[in-house]
Amino acid sequence: MTITLETYKQVFNLLQDFAFLVDVSADILDENSKVKNRNFSHSNLANCFAVGSKDLFKSSFRSQAVIFRTDFYITAKEYFFAELNVIPLISEPEAIYLVIVKDITVQHEKELELLRFSEVIHQTANPIQITNPEGKIIYANPAYVNISGYTREELIGNNPSVLNSGKHGKEFWKKVWVKILAGQQWVGQIQNKRKSGELFHTELVISPIVDEQKKVIGFLGAHRDITEQKILERQVVRSQKMETFGTLAAGIAHEVGNPLTSISSLVQLVQRQSSDDFVQEKLELAKNQINRISKILRELVDFSRPSTHDIKDVSVNLIIREALNIVQYGKKSRATIFDVALEENLAMIHAVPDQLLQVYLNILMNAVDACEGKQGHIFVSSALRGECVEAVFKDNGSGISEKNIGKLFDPFFTTKEVGKGTGLGLWVSMGIVRNFGGDIFVESEEGKSTTFTVRLPVKGA
């Protein structure tokens, strides 16, 4: 079967894009019906391009086949963004080229919009991941990589559950999946875990990605790190508790203190007058319990009333060494190893020395108690962190459960046996440190270790 020239002509005219036959000088030899139906008046195709693109177009004649994109001018004012395909048809006796010009303005705008969108996602400070319909990560922006602690290679192809902290159970995520698979957006707060094991909180928005047929083809998860916000919320609640309890403490101490003094006096009076061993034993027991109540009341009074001590320039290292001298020679500390690494020439802080000593003693004695029954190892260090001086106390003791971490600084909360702790030491310590503009942070792994960090602002900061 022979295809005639007329057949080629028909195919040429049926093309939906602009089509030209040009010689090596870009003079137009023929054009299809699509061109003729437009207000096209150029005789040389090179005149349809701006200066830079004109040179690119002419150089395409020296290649086998070239595809490139540029603005294509139908007239001096009318143009569209085009994809040009320059194809050599005949090389002898004179070269003839087929040039197909496709209007891709709409496609180009979509590509630019996608490029802008992808650049915004890539550069945003908020962690963002995109998953396929099965929940496998196909994209993670630098912020997501940074907050997760994993590399991009470790994340791609993995499930976002790699960050699961275990706080949210299967039922929680089942409800999330039901909603997003239905094409609806899900918004909520979640707790995740970095590769290092450190927990962090984010506000998460999961938006389904749908195609033209409204079919879900993936999901975009946008996070907002609210870890600091959560910490501040807990601190506000704790401060409110401490403020309320401080007000009550003064009243309780006064109301209980007066009758307790009378009871104590009567016990001592009876002790002096009785020679019965049984009575003496029971009175001594009562006296010890009275002394215990008195100690609690003194701590309540100390917390509730403003300090009468003078605030002065204090060396954190000096106070730490003093606290260590008191603690490490105690009976309980004989089997404990103390490693001390204090940064020299630390800036001074503004505090009451005796009160700061009390804080460090409370933490150190708790560390010693936590190591009871094993070879204790307590690491103590100090360092300058920005505009704060940090004192860190880490032990290899029994640790603290996650459910108890948030209660440590509550009044009367203790994990010790009855009679071995009042539950006021850390509460009072937090109040002292907060009065000096600082804070106390706790990290613990149950059964392994606990780290207390006391952070106080540098003088003048």
Quick synopsis:
The chain is of the alpha+beta class. The chain has helices at residues 5-14, 33-36, 51-59, 105-123, 142-148, 152-155, 170-181, 227-273, 277-304, 316-327, 353-370, 402-405, 425-435; strands spanning 18-23, 28-31, 66-73, 79-90, 96-103, 128-131, 137-140, 186-193, 199-210, 216-225, 312-314, 337-342, 349-351, 377-385, 388-395, 439-445, 449-457.
Give the SSE order as H and E letters.
HEEHHEEEHEEHHHEEEHHEHEEHEEHHEE
Uncertain regions spanning at least 5 consecutive residues: none
The CATH superfamily name of the largest domain is Histidine kinase-like ATPase, C-terminal domain
Shape: elongated
Strand content: 25-35%
Supply the number of helical segments: 13
Instruction: Classify the secondary structure makeup into a structural class.
Output: alpha+beta
Question: How is this structure best described in words?
Answer:
- This protein has a five-stranded antiparallel sheet with strand order 2-1-5-4-3. A five-stranded antiparallel sheet has the order 7-6-10-9-8, with helices on both faces.
- The protein is 40% helix and 26% strand.
- The protein is built from 13 helices and 17 strands.
- With 461 residues, the protein is of the alpha+beta class.
